[in-house]
Amino acid sequence: MPFSKLQGRAVNWAEAEAPGLISLRFGNSISVEKQSEFLISPNGTFASGFYQVAAGTNAYCYSIWITNSVTKTVVWMANRDRPVIGKRSKLTLHRNGNVLVDPDGSTMWSSYTVSEAYAKVRLLETGDLVLIDQRENVIWEFRLSH
């Protein structure tokens, strides 16, 4: 499913016409630099990736947003109190869970979970961000839905 351009606040990766990622697998990363690196829910209602905190700045938060909103409604930020500064920041799925690091390697946010080598992160159609094992069991989740 193509990812459509969003109107309103300009954010480089949101303007890319790219399909997005269905899941993030163990050892893989989503980085600030690559516009095509974001998770998308199955029907494209939600997306998750790096959100530029303010236009013209180099500060980013890992976020979940509604894709069809005109003003790009962000519904969750992992590191809202400590945005990563600079390029080379990335969210990586490690054995100790999802880890968001800044360019110098400092951990800015983590799910603090122990994952298996076959674990992956998915963004559900409900907006929930989940870490699942090879049997599709949920290891960790951020629940947007209640």
UniProtKB/TrEMBL annotation:
SMART domains the UniProt entry points to: B_lectin
Highest taxon listed in the record's lineage: Eukaryota
One CC-aspect GO term: membrane
Xref: PANTHER family: OS07G0415500 PROTEIN, RECEPTOR-LIKE SERINE_THREONINE-PROTEIN KINASE
Localisation: Membrane
Bilayer topology term: Single-pass membrane protein
Domain Bulb-type lectin: from-to ranges: 31-144
Name of the protein described by the UniProt record: Bulb-type lectin domain-containing protein
Record keywords, A-Z: Glycoprotein, Membrane, Signal, Transmembrane, Transmembrane helix
Keyword Transmembrane helix: yes
